[in-house]
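Input record, target 12 of the design panel.
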């Protein structure tokens, strides 16, 4: 009763406030900055605000007091302001505001580097002043590096501490708080939030950035916000994209066959000369390194951006370039060369280094210094690094591929699309005319590269996505408004997998387990495994395994010290396999050996990646907290317990039973994946002795790696009895096609039923 009363009273207040606002034409922008600071200034609540103009916003920006903090702007702020007001988007601020005010959903297209990601959210903030209503603005990014880096930049631009008014949220890392009004987040994180808050009620405006990337999460978000927008007329949506497939977005978000409005900001790019290689390059890595060195030796001033495919390759290239550059300096008197890597798992302080200026010449008037950034696709459109004049493009990136028939999702180094190649080349023309060196032939560009990459939704295993959609309350997946609907077979596979995991009932409804699993930011298999682990008495150990699987590899294997690295690894090896080995490493890091020499040193001595272990600890803590929150017991099994290994491995089977392989009969090396009958080899990095009759017959694996051969990686030996005991439905023989695996399983079933 009492409740209803207050609610009613508040409603009345709102309408009074609205009336007052209408009558007196009070504009938020007529308030002084001090007045704008009060976060819950009751007077403003629910008040109809009038639209600001670009001029009014700029007045606030160039005033004395920061309206978001109430503090005086610092000199540094004005320094940055001078630079950013020259970005192309500022010239069209009024046009942006006019469209923003006139429509609920708009599409915004602009050349990379024009200021979309950093400026547009601020345009919205200065217009909406969302903090007055207790609301926030969200800006999504497909990549965590971009979310973190841009948040840091915008916090500087707005003269606030990162984590206060401007924050970020990426999986397993959050930096935001009660004061936050602008949050950069990965598209996946916003999707997670939507699972608990279907209306996205804390946001007044949602900006979906880098929509052209068409990541899985962005695609789902687009479908979702389209629905939410109908229920929440007060919610504004901006879809931002770098390349010009704007019409597709416009018509997708359009109403009654009318495309939604578009604002396109013309780029301010300089011409880029494109060079192709006369012939096919067998070793693109080597070719890329040589090209960088040649540019440094012969071309005018200007920084170099090289696109490679992943962390290992990038670190390797950086080392080699660094080494050889020293030689160039000695032998040819070249200027200094500084090399920076850039990839997703790089820690934030290292990421920020790419923005440092190129090194000074060795002596005044000497040959200029240069910086080289060796990057994944991140630098294609997500991050802009000023000063780049030369781009080296080998034409590859790591891309997800999924084959629903054999249920294999894998990251593959694949040729990029023409659109990507154009974006990459464009990075050379930011500040002045540039050059792009494509390490492939012109013919290959014309004939072999596809025009546009396929959206991720068409290349992914969808079990996480389907679980998310179910949790979002979207039951009718077939009629969900996807921009590009996934293949029915992929959808069926996902439903089937979730059913085996008991996350979905036979009718396709979310089960209690499914609901619980969806609260963990993990693949459903791993979530189910973690939730089930207390029953095996080893949830602490399984937490460690899941954490290890959620971060980059613990083990490093430098080319120069392979043997030593392999020996170091074997010291941690558990005879039953890689997952148990992770636990050994983590234990020594967290509470064992490492305490004596210090964790850094200990990692160096043992060829371990300190950062990975550090983030495993962070991930583990967060998952542990989730376990506590959902009342899942935390228990541990002592290392010397005779059931130590078998308990943990059974807990692993309970989640990963769909990823099992059996040694092919008569073979010493080849395995067959269970059910899908793919012939695979075990990745040589394993500690498992596969020649051993007891441990080498049946294994569970985490990853299917497609290279010249098919490998399974991260493997642990399992007892087939556990398979039929823990996942009887999946291992029901009637679902198996004739063959080796079926025969062996039949024997296991017989023995199991006899007992
Ligand atoms: O999103 P879009 O590609 O349109 O541009 P942006 O990311 O907003 O970048 C606009 C400008 O801000 C570029 O000139 C960047 O160099 C600069 N920026 C920066 O200096 N430091 C960052 N961490 C991010 C951007
Ligand atoms: Mg951007």
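The sequence produced for target 12 reads:
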């Amino acid at each position: 009763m009492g409740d209803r009363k207050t609610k009613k009273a508040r409603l009345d207040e709102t309408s009074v406030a609205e009336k007052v606002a209408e009558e007196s034409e009070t504009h938020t922008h007529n308030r002084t900055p001090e007045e704008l600071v009060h976060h819950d200034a009751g007077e403003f609540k629910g008040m109809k605000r009038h639209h600001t103009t670009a001029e009014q916003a700029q007045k606030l920006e160039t005033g004395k007091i920061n309206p978001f903090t109430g503090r005086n702007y610092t000199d540094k702020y004005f320094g940055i302001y001078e630079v950013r007001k020259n970005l192309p988007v500022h010239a069209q601020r009024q046009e942006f505001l006019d469209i923003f005010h006139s429509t609920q959903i708009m599409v915004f297209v602009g050349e990379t580097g024009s200021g979309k990601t950093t400026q547009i959210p601020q345009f919205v903030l200065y217009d909406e002043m969302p903090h007055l209503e207790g609301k926030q603005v969200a800006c999504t990014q497909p990549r965590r590096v971009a979310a973190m880096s841009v948040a840091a930049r915008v916090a500087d631009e707005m003269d606030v501490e990162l984590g206060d008014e401007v924050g970020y949220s990426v999986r397993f890392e959050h930096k935001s708080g009660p004061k936050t009004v602008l949050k950069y987040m990965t598209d996946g994180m916003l999707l997670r939030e939507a699972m608990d808050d279907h209306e996205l009620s804390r946001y007044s405006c949602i900006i979906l950035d880098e929509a052209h990337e068409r990541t899985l999460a962005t695609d789902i978000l687009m479908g979702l916000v389209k629905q939410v927008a109908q229920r929440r007329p007060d919610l504004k949506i901006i879809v931002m994209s770098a390349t010009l497939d704007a019409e597709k977005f416009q018509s997708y978000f359009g109403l009654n066959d009318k495309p939604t409005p578009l604002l396109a900001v013309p780029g301010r790019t300089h011409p880029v000369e494109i060079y192709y290689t006369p012939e096919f390059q067998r070793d693109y890595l080597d070719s890329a390194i040589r090209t960088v060195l040649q540019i440094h030796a012969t071309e005018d001033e200007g920084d170099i951006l090289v696109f490679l495919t992943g962390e290992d390759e990038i670190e390797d290239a950086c080392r080699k370039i660094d080494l050889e550059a020293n030689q160039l300096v000695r032998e040819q008197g070249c200027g200094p060369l500084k090399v920076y890597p850039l990839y997703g798992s790089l820690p934030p302080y290292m990421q920020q280094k790419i923005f440092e200026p190129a090194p000074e010449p060795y002596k005044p008037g000497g040959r200029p210094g240069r910086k080289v950034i060796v990057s994944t696709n991140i630098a294609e459109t997500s991050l802009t690094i000023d000063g780049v004049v030369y781009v080296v493009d080998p034409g590859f990136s790591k891309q997800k591929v999924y084959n629903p028939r054999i249920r294999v999702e894998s990251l593959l180094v694949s040729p990029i699309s023409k659109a990507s190649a154009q974006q990459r080349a464009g990075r050379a023309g930011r500040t002045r005319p540039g050059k792009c060196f494509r390490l492939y032939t012109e013919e290959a560009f014309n004939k072999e590269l596809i025009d546009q990459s396929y959206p991720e939704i068409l290349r992914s295993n969808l079990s996480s996505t389907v679980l998310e959609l179910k949790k979002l309350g979207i039951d009718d997946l077939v009629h969900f408004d996807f921009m590009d609907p996934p293949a029915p077979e992929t959808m069926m596979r996902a439903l089937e997998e979730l059913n085996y995991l008991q996350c979905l009932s036979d009718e396709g409804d979310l089960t209690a387990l499914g609901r619980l699993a969806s609260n963990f930011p993990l693949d459903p298999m791993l979530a189910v495994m973690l939730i089930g682990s207390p029953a095996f008495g080893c949830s602490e150990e399984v937490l460690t395994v899941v954490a290890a699987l959620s971060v980059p590899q613990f083990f490093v294997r430098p080319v120069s010290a392979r043997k030593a690295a392999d020996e170091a690894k074997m010291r941690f090896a558990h005879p039953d396999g890689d997952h148990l080995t992770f636990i050994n490493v983590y234990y020594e890091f967290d509470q064992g050996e490492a305490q004596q020499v210090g964790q850094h040193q200990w990692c160096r001595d043992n060829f371990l990646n300190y950062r990975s272990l550090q983030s495993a600890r962070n991930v583990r803590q967060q998952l542990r907290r989730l376990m506590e929150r959902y009342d899942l017991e935390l228990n541990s099994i002592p290392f010397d317990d005779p059931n130590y290994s078998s308990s943990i491995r059974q807990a692993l089977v309970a989640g990963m039973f769909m990823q099992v392989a059996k040694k092919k009969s008569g073979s010493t090396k080849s395995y067959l994946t269970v059910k899908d009958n793919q012939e695979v080899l075990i990745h040589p990095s394993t500690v498992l002795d596969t020649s051993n009759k007891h441990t080498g017959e049946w294994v569970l694996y985490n990853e299917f790696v497609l290279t010249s051969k098919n490998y399974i990686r991260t493997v642990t030996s399992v007892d087939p009895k556990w398979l039929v005991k823990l996942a009887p439905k999946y291992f029901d023989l009637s679902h198996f096609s004739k063959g080796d695996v079926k025969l062996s399983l039949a024997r296991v079933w017989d023995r199991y039923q006899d007992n």
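Residues 658-754 form one domain.
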